[in-house]
User: Fold this.
Amino acid sequence: AQKITQTQPGMFVQEKEAVTLDCTYDTSDPSYGLFWYKQPSSGEMIFLIYQGSYDQQNATEGRYSLNFQKARKSANLVISASQLGDSAMYFCAMREGRDNYGQNFVFGPGTRLSVLP
Amino acid sequence: EPEVTQTPSHQVTQMGQEVILRCVPISNHLYFYWYRQILGQKVEFLVSFYNNEISEKSEIFDDQFSVERPDGSNFTLKIRSTKLEDSAMYFCASSPSGLGGTDTQYFGPGTRLTVL
Assistant:
């Protein structure tokens, strides 16, 4: 079973508008973290925002916010006031808490966002 | 702001050759990782490394692969006898700690490996 699902392979948004990128996850571990990364065409992976499973409030970082709905197991990324430079691939990732050290991320398949002028 | 660096940015090699991909993690981080991303596909975990030993590895990380921290700053991924299907972007990442589900991993810019 997929641990991270991103149902939108591609999204379009008009410049200056807001856009929501969907992410749902599957875990039975009570301790986990959810992350969003941006991958522009140049290929690097840029960390955007983090949400912990015990966090009471939704995470925000500048124009990025995370709509965390724990009961629904969703962690959607909201980008406000889209800019042309936001055009990229966006990956949702989850890291589950474990007793042993050395943990890894599980990545979703990604959503390609295109911002239109 | 400190960042993870990787060299080279692009490596071209012949099938059957050995390659070493290099990474310099963020200096005060304790956990190091390698991931790969085959073109157009999602990022896949290869291995995590802590206290000079592998702490976890995926099914992908077979005997063809090895990792090493040869000194206090570098973290390397060696691929022996490369195959065509090893062509991918390889990302190094590091995190301050590895406990719980809350630790952010910071990724390097990647090394694009092309096996001919």
